[in-house]
Design a protein that fits this description.
The protein has 148 residues and is an all-beta fold. 0% of the residues lie in helices and 51% in strands.
Length: 148
């Protein structure tokens, strides 16, 4: 099952359960990519963005992966093992990922990530970039703002 899709670099890229990734130039014909995994097996991916140079996807157990083509992925070390459900990129290329227990992680390059204090322990399921930061929303109607 696919969970999220992004457009960039002349292609759509979709990610999903059990580390599924697929890429398509026309949205009709899709090619399957590599599957991220850890010591527990394939890692489900829940969110994806294109930051202008690469796709960045996030998922289970703090998984963060990047790809220039949406088919071959590189895993990166995250500052937390919390599940990550959504990711956004702002106009400056700053990334923010959100997830379990109020986790917010930010990065300027998709490779090096910093854990931020969101001020909540509620699970965060959505994030959106604004001109001055990121808004995240989650369980119990919580909405938090981070200015990076």
């Amino acid at each position: 099952m696919s969970n999220a899709v992004a457009w960039g670099g002349g292609r759509y890229v979709a990610v999903g359960e059990a580390g599924i990734s697929m890429a398509s130039a026309d949205g009709i014909t899709w090619t399957f990519g590599t599957t991220p995994s850890d010591s527990y097996g394939p890692v489900g991916l829940f969110g994806i963005v294109y930051d202008g140079t690469q796709f960045v996807a996030v998922g289970e157990r703090g998984c963060i992966v990047t790809s220039t083509d949406g088919l071959t992925w590189t895993q990166h070390t995250a500052p937390s093992t919390a599940g990550l459900y959504a990711i956004a990129v702002d106009a400056n290329g700053e990334l923010a990922a959100v997830g379990d227990l109020g986790v917010v992680e930010t990065s300027g390059d998709g490779v090096h990530w910093t854990l931020r204090d969101s001020g909540t322990h509620r699970w965060l399921f959505a994030v959106a970039a604004t001109g001055g930061g990121f808004y995240a929303a989650g369980e119990d109607n919580v909405i938090v703002f981070s200015n990076h």
